[in-house]
Design goal:
single chain; about 350 residues; mainly alpha; three-stranded antiparallel sheet; 12 helices; 6 strands; globular
């Protein structure tokens, strides 16, 4: 790998150390682009696993025992979420533990969360409902309920693999339009109406939510890397990946997409780009004629992120910040900020390129 990506990885890992010193036992959420100061949460919310994951990646990078202990302690603080009614447990517990390697306590927490998610799956709806732990209606199908949840459920034994496949395929049914549909080709969130027994698209997030498209592509890539999950439907998953890549302009559009593709002049979302880069690196490890193209595009995206949206040592802001992430464009919340999950996926991709993480297992 290039010296530039090595320098970027070093800067990201140093940024993790600076962040850890600033936030203490709290969880970073997003940082101000002007000075790098973090807005934090006490319990981590749906993003807590990404901070734990960053600490595990730093522990791998440094090989230092104090860094390993810091990662383990952060992961332990995620425990209250194991029994929470939220499909974002996939994001919390998969990404918060997958980079922990053979750490027994992280593995035990992941297994507990997987069993809880399996128990909460609704066989009639064919998925793990969004849940009400974060507020709002419980019976939602959202694309951000799929990444992390697929490998998490897949680790819960034969029943878990079947539930992971059902969860993913149900979301593909609901979220991806079919040729000739009058509706948008991508529907990131749908609510279930018990009175009619039908799913109806939600207005928020909008159909052009680029991070939603990246989330679903990541989930499909993870399923393709786990033979038990496709349940004999490898073709369907490869077609879904092709649809997301083609209709989403993943290979031909801007390396860093707008947060809402329906508003091309609006804020960008570097976190969507970082998630996409990881998904492409995963897809490059699956059988198919475009593997090399996926890998090259992933590296192109990473190059753009680290050259054009990355802080250097300017004396004003900490180096290693991935800027221009958009938390919520509609609410104008943190629209040009450093986001903890953007940092995580950038760090994961760079770690994979440098042999520090197995992209097929994290």
């Amino acid at each position: 790998m290039s010296a530039a990506t090595g320098r970027a990885l070093a800067a990201v890992m140093e940024r993790v150390a600076v962040t850890a010193a600033e936030v203490g036992p709290r969880f970073p959420l997003y940082a101000d682009p002007a000075d790098g100061r973090w807005t934090t949460t006490g319990r981590g919310s749906w993003t807590g696993g990404f901070w734990a994951g960053l600490l595990w990646l730093r522990a791998r990078y440094t090989g230092a025992e104090p860094d390993r202990r810091a990662a383990a302690a952060c992961t332990a603080r995620l425990e209250p979420w194991a029994g929470a009614d939220t499909a974002t447990r996939g994001l919390i517990f998969w990404y918060g533990t997958a980079a922990a390697g053979d750490d027994a306590e992280a593995a035990a927490l992941r297994a507990r969360a997987a069993r809880a998610c399996l128990s909460a799956c609704d066989p009639e709806l064919g998925l793990l409902p969004w849940g009400d732990a974060l507020g709002g209606p419980r019976l939602l199908a959202r694309v951000d309920a799929v990444p992390g949840t697929v490998p998490l459920l897949a680790g819960a034994g034969p029943g878990g693999a079947a539930a992971a496949a059902a969860h993913l395929h149900r979301h593909l049914d609901l979220c991806l339009g079919r040729p000739g549909d009058a509706a948008p080709w991508f529907r990131p969130a749908l609510g279930f109406e018990t009175a009619t027994g039908r799913w109806q698209p939600c207005e928020d997030p909008p159909p052009g939510w680029s991070r939603g498209q990246a989330w679903l592509l990541l989930a499909v890539a993870d399923a393709l890397l786990r033979p038990a999950v496709p349940a004999g439907d490898f073709t369907r998953l490869t077609e879904a990946a092709a649809l997301l890549i083609t209709r989403g302009g993943v290979l031909t559009g801007r390396p860093v997409p707008p947060a809402d593709t329906g508003r091309p002049d609006g804020p960008l979302d570097t976190s969507a780009a970082a998630i996409t880069a990881v998904a492409l690196l995963k897809l490059a490890r699956t059988p198919g004629p475009r593997a090399e193209q996926y890998a090259l595009r992933a590296e192109e995206i990473l190059d753009r992120l680290t050259r054009s949206h990355f802080t250097g040592d300017d004396g004003v802001r900490p180096p290693g910040m991935l800027l221009d992430g958009c938390y919520d464009a509609a609410k104008r919340l943190a629209v040009r900020h450093e986001l903890v999950w953007g940092d995580f996926f950038l760090a994961l991709a760079l770690s994979a390129l440098h042999g520090l993480a197995d992209i097929t297992r994290v």
